[in-house]
Amino acid sequence: MNVDKVLDAKGLSCPMPIVKTKVAISELEEGQVLEVHTTDKGARNDIPAWAKSGGHELLKHEEENDVLKFWIRKR
Fold first, then answer.
1. Are 30 and 74 in contact (CB under 8 A)?
2. pLDDT digits over 45-68, tens only?
3. In Å, how far are 40, 65, 66 from 73, measured between CA atoms?
């Protein structure tokens, strides 16, 4: 998967991963992909809900060594 920007939001608590994701995706062009890394367990629900409400496409998500990873295509 082609990733245009990676956001490291590890160690941040709610709502900062969402705030940082919103800022990072605003810097991308439509169709580009943002990869988000966070350790905030609330992001498991928050980021997919935020992406859907913003009209963005959640391409994939996974957990690796207590780090949640999300790939979001800007719409």
1. yes
2. 999 999 999 999 999 999 999 999
3. 21, 24, 23
- Which residues are designated catalytic? 14
pLDDT tier for residue 1 given thresholds of 50, 70 and 90: confident
Higher-pLDDT residue of 68 and 14 is 68
Q: Rg of the Cα trace of the chain? A: 11
Pairing of strands 57-64, 67-73: antiparallel
Structural domains of the chain sorted by starting position, each given as residue range(s) with its CATH number in brackets: 5-73 (3.30.110.40)
What's the first-to-final CA gap in the chain, in angstroms?
Answer: 17
Helix axes 16-26, 43-53, angle to 10 degrees: 40
- pTM, two decimal places: 0.94
The first and second tokens of residue 8, run together, are 């490291």
Please give the Cα distance from 67 to 27 (Å, whole number): 23
